[in-house]
Amino acid sequence: MTTCTPFAMPETPAEPALTSQLDIAGELTALLRDTTTELRPDDQLEALTLAVAADLPVLLWGEPGIGKTAALTQLAASLDLPLTTVIASVHEPSDFSGLPIVGDDPAEQGVPMAPPDWAVRLVRAGRGLLFLDELSTAPPAVQAALLRLVLERRIGALQLPPGVRIVAAANPRSSAAGGWELSPPLANRFVHLQWTHDHEVVVRGLGGTWPRATMPRLDPGKLTQAVDFARRAVCGLLAVRPKLVHQLPGNEARRGGAWPSPRSWDMTLNLIAFATAAGSSRDVLSLLIRGTVGDGPGLELLASLDRMDLPDPETLLADPATAELPERGDLRQATLDGVVAAVRNRPDKPRWDAAWALLVRALETGAPDLVVVPATTLAALRQEDWDVPASIEQLAGVVSLSRRADRSADRATARIAVAAQAGR
Amino acid sequence: MTTGAPGALDLDKLFAARLHAARARPYLATALFALHTVESRRVPTMGVDQYWRCYVSPAFVDATPVEELAGVWVHEVSHLLRDHHGRGDRATRVLGLTGPGDRLRMNIAADCEINDDVFGDGLVRPEGAVEPRALGLDEGELMEDYVRQFRLGPYTQRFAWLDCGSGADGLEREWDLGPDGAHGLSAQEQDAVRFRVAQGITGRPGNSSRGWKRWAEEAFHPPQPWRELLGAAVRSAASGSGTGEDYSYGRPSRRSAGLPGVVLPSLRRRPPRVSVVIDTSGSVSDAELGSALLEVAAISSAVGGRRDLISVLPCDAAARIVHPLCLGEGIPLVGGGGTDLRTGFARALRTSPRPDVIVVLTDGQTRWPREQPPCRTVVGLFPRHHRRASWDEDDPDYVPDSPPEWARTVTIG
Q1: Which residue range or ranges hold the AAA+ ATPase domain (chain A) (predicted)?
Q2: How far does A369 lie from chain B, in Å, by closest CA?
């Protein structure tokens, strides 16, 4: 008599099968699960970790099936928080706002809103990572109840303790069938992170090696400095660009995304401080900033951070001989422009000479065409009683380079004119 | 600075050319200076990689006049600013272009996008630069459009030497230093440079060409496909409260039987009624209307609307008969002359039962109801930049308004 198995049994087994087909299947499954991990920096996971650490509501935007849940599992493990996943689309609104339970005398005792079991357990544990998945496929009433949970941290009569962190995930508008769309006030409360898959990671992972991200660690020694840096960065930009403080999204294409307001700038300030204290890269910071105040204002902030990184003109002028100029051409020219502007603001002979020495140094260590504009401006600052410094001899090459470019421009103009006549 | 050794890279010539380029196109100076030059004997001319390194052949610099080199500089930096590397990768996936010849096509298409307006006004066209006209194509289109329009053949034979590097088409070259090599720009740094260039162009738009202005406007806000935007607008209008599938306490849930004392809401379905008001005045083409109408029908059925709940109302100066969509494709879109969508709104709201959503497809040369109608409104707008505002005999001063604030407006096409 044969027992029923999911696999076809040979009619006459050559020998009595010691291991059943299910055991063999189990062995095969174990082999398939036997994968290794490798250390690999992951900017999006690092950005997510920092936002969760800063206790800001995060909304992950990504197509279904690209590993959002896997990322959250890894995040929970690294933060040492128990993970509670709630699939929003299979719940009813009352699961989040509480079930009204009619007692014996509702008029006297009121109608309590009973919370679901997972919320009770989460509150009892006092800490945990709550992942609200598939927000966008839930009916509107469920979404409304969930947003109250995310923003007020309340489920029915229960208040979530501060140790609980919340992350939500939604599908992009184009693939959201259920009509999910964030109104601007709601969108403004989230850090929006676009979740995409890395082709190389997926191929390597299916081949048996999944990535393991290094989690950012906050450095206790850097906290004061990080707060100071974040305040300088945000206030420095908003002081000169008051328009950026509040900008409602104007057109249809930008609806539902991040936009700047005092609230989201405050979130940005927090995130810059966290990223600085963790020593995160500019790319991670870029994801966080652009996900909080939007692309345009975010890029302006990043550009002003770049300018904050440039060497201070006064330090350079104080000691031109050992000055370290940025390697990248555009940053180097911005630095030299800054030096010339500093001399213009407070012109005197030693500063003017020091600036020439800096230009010579720039010429010795990099491309000559970057020096042309600062040298021309600096020469124009000369006052009558100032002697030309000896170092200027070394800049003769710059002058000839500039003339060569002039002649080239003349030839170009002439050739274009000839071509235009021939064309006619 | 000049190294006299034969075959060495003439840096002075190269940098004089870059200075010329930066003077001719001041708004590109940041990007030009951000490039890191790498001498390479394997690259045929000049090429860029996706980390903003610029590989230069010494022989090519020797053989090319300074003023042409200036043009090549601007050409190469344009590949990077316009993200031809990333777009090439995406286009490859979407169009399934995997052969080696396809990358050359991508490079030629990218060159066409750049070259039609990058030269002139102080910059000479380098010898052998590809132009759309040389391939018999129209000017002013994008790489993705060009790449579909030609095949490699006798026309493109003379461009076969052309190679702008992996920055132009996304395919790694043997000479690339790769992500770990020195002096590469990270994605964030590249965005920062693009942003500064775009800011320079939008700040002083007078100096730049039309192509660059368009690029600057769209660099960080690429126009979204109207189908998705219209879909999102109709979907959110059609599934708002009162319509679609949602919970309601109006009738107890079936779960209630097992839970005495607990009040549960139940899931109710009320499919939305959608009225499509179509502007059939002479200014909207049948092809545009057809594609937009199909789109609305597809979206409505995706949100649970039945075909019999969608009605179509052609409207010019007067609203005609309401057609249910289930009659098929035979809706007569007759009309012509001026438009007054107010009659269309009134007619749509008079139908019983009243629609939950009104979708208006128009070119906007019309008057709008003064007050917000008692249902959600989505406007699909066909842009008309070149056209003069329509003229009305009775009211010669009349200028058509833009769609009102209470409607969600999506620009189509």
Answers
A1: 54-206
A2: 6
